[in-house]
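Quick question, first post here. What does this chain look like in 3D?
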Amino acid sequence: MENLAVIRRAAAIAIAGLLAGCAVQTPASGPELAFAPTQTIAVLNRVTWGVNDSTVKRAGAAGLGGYLQGQLHPGAERLPAAIEAQLAALTIGQRPLDQLVFELERQRKEADALGDDEAKKGARQAYQQELNRLAREAATRSLLRAVYSPNQLQEQVSWFWMNHFSVHQGKHNLRAMVGDYEEQAIRPHALGKFRDLLAATVHHPAMLRYLDNEQNAAGRINENYARELMELHTLGVDGGYSQRDVQELARVLTGVGVNLGPEAPKVKRELQGDYRRAGLYEFNPNRHDYGAKQLLGQPLRRRGPAEVDEAIARLSAHPATARFVSRKLAQFFVADEAPAALVERMAQTFLRSDGDIAATLQTMLASAEFAASLGHKFKDPQHYAVSALRLAYDDKPILNAGPLLNWLKRMGEPLYGRQTPDGYPLTQAAWASPGQMSTRFEIAKAIGGGSAGLFKADGPQAQEKAAFPQLSNALYFSSLKATLAPATLRALDQAASPQEWNAYLLSAPEMMYR
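> Answer (accepted):
Ran it through. Tokens below.
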């Protein structure tokens, strides 16, 4: 697509200076004026879940440089009132995680204690349905924010970290925990310090249950979490650690676990000062290995729960972690094959800034490699589906996220659905099959024709029947049209109805890239 190549070449000249340094100049005559509308669209398509009219207006009001700085350092989230109302009604936002889980554990135990087989079957089914409902609430909240939040970079990076520190909701009772995991462990730290983000995941019951660390105790070492903590979360498989390091980290993590009930264990008198409890998280000194340890060639100086903090700090500050995290961020935001020189510059920023994620991303956004990649990164299923909804219903809050949840499941990328701890793949090869493209066209037809069911709210109340979206609007004629190839424009000219025109636009080759 020659028009996309033009965008990338022109943007490479302008954007490299746009974010250079820590301070970005954004006066009325600033460098953002050097961008044509098509170039602005290309940048916005990459730093958001998908361009729409409100995003273009925000970038126009702040200047592109000011907009990007606002995305790197977002303020309070302001969602549309209708979306806020939907989120406020969710159980996961009204009750603390420990209360939810205590009640669910009581329900599970009562079901298991029933003597009548038919009654037991019904009670167990009710328990499973409640877990499913809570997981659906979590996914709904995440997707509504992705579609409507003005803090788009934060939402994208939150998804990235949820994928990086992946947990599978199908294990144990994690369906009740994934919402809190995303809300408390991931989103608050998504653009902050990596050490704080890592610590939040280490101390969350969803991660500890998923990777079996609640079974890790002195004399019964379970290495599962320690291995993934090094291989997938910090150093990377080629990060220079040994099997001995895995064993030592597993010893550090003994006693780090989960307490699903309100009662605390009886701790030996001499160890009671080391006991920790925060919600469902528990450090039980009775289960901890207090022997001397070495990690990555250096002894651990602290003891008990403080060993965990020291290990987190050491892993977070390691050069291998800086390179591994920078490579994954560049793969997600720039190219399937992350440019080595860009990764090295990002890693140096990571190390100089004590693992500041926003600073590391700023180095990436200011790079010529980022600018040259615009319009060339293939959308994974969530990027495709959310970008289509953002374009179609920018100013009309959807009432039912169910169709979106189903589309992601059909395309193989449901939220919290990756069974293995490596997270979903971030490359085009994983998502560009003919079957995937066929599904995307069906989604485009459903959204474009207004028949997707996005405005059929649950409950008996009659709801307004949504008209199909008006995609042939001012944004299209002022900005989007210039980004489309001649073949796409010819196809749009041949559409027999507005609904068909919408479907052609939403399924166009250009809609598959960001």
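The chain is about 55% helix and 5% strand.
The longest strand covers residues 256-258.
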